């Protein structure tokens, strides 16, 4: 086996759709907006889910806010039902405009898909992968869950990864975390969260293994560091899957780690190149044959 090909090179993800700006940047500093973690109790957002407030308000509150609370123009305020109706109307406008600008797109997509990117990201409403990449329908195959956690035994993400790698033959697998992640904030706290507790377990394990480092940092930096560590953990899980190992060996599949800054819209690419020793160990432990 060609061990050298298992090395995951720095991404060429910046390969872009025509006319769109480069989204991958190593230079952009990350500043995690902390508004979701600093809202005072008694605010409308804090009242909507006080149980989550101190550690993960972004997890449950973001989508409950309506334009009514932010509208100071004196115009007619929009209810959540209005927003749904508006969305359906906007869809018709978007479909018509897209068909006008790209006449072949929808007829081509009706016959199948050939995405080159598999995106494994967080469910957060602020991280719509196709939009933030400046791409179009058909460009990105997607699995998103709370805090972009890659559970080794998760059937859902496992099926998505296998289908994308083995059948769609994507060229790039992206594990993307983001700043101000409510799931990460929850894992940094110690409140009981019901069904979220087993879901967040891998995040807490990463927290445990890196406790000294995280405790040495200011809270906001510690949260962003845990986002990064979680991405690296997720990449390890992805690269331990036989179908991914084979695709790396046989056709140079690349696995990337990104962090999306919700406060600026900019992606930062992590340096995730594996050492030769790590590559050999992974291959020894996880490569399988039929
Ligand atoms: Zn998140």
TrEMBL record:
Q: Name one GO biological process term.
A: cellular response to oxidative stress
Q: What class of enzyme is it?
A: lyase
Q: A single Gene Ontology molecular function, please?
A: zinc ion binding
Chain sites annotated for binding Zn(2+): 122, 124, 178, 181
Compositionally biased residues, Polar residues: 22-31
By its UniProt entry, which Pfam families does this protein fall under?
Pro_CA (PF00484)
Protein name per Swiss-Prot or TrEMBL:
Carbonic anhydrase
What organism is the protein native to?
Answer: Penicillium chermesinum
Traced from the root, the source organism's taxonomic lineage reads:
Eukaryota, Fungi, Dikarya, Ascomycota, Pezizomycotina
């Amino acid at each position: 086996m060609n061990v050298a090909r298992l090395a995951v090179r720095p991404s060429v993800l910046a390969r872009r759709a025509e006319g769109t700006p480069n989204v991958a940047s190593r230079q952009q500093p990350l500043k995690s907006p902390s508004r979701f973690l600093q809202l005072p109790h008694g605010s409308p957002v804090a009242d909507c889910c006080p149980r989550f407030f101190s550690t993960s308000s972004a997890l449950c509150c973001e989508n409950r806010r309506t334009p009514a609370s932010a509208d100071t123009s004196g115009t007619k305020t929009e209810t959540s039902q209005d927003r749904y109706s508006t969305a359906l109307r906007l869809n018709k406008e978007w479909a018509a405009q897209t068909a006008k600008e790209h006449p072949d797109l929808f007829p081509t997509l009706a016959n199948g898909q050939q995405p080159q990117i598999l995106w494994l990201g967080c469910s957060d409403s602020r991280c719509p992968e196709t939009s933030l990449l400046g791409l179009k329908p058909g460009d990105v195959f997607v699995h998103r869950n709370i805090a972009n956690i890659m559970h080794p035994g998760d059937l859902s993400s496992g099926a998505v990864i296998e289908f994308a790698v083995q059948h769609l033959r994507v060229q790039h697998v992206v594990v993307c975390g983001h700043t101000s992640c409510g799931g990460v904030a929850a894992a940094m706290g110690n409140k009981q969260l019901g069904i979220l507790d087993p879901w967040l377990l891998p995040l807490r394990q990463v927290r445990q293994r890196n406790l000294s480092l995280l405790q040495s940092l200011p809270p906001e930096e510690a949260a962003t560091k845990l986002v990064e560590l979680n991405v690296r953990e997720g990449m390890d899980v992805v690269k331990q899957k036989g179908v991914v190992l084979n695709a790396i060996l046989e056709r140079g599949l690349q696995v990337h780690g990104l962090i999306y800054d919700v406060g600026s819209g900019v992606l930062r690419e992590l340096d995730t190149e594996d050492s030769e020793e790590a590559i050999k160990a992974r291959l020894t432990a996880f490569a399988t044959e039929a």
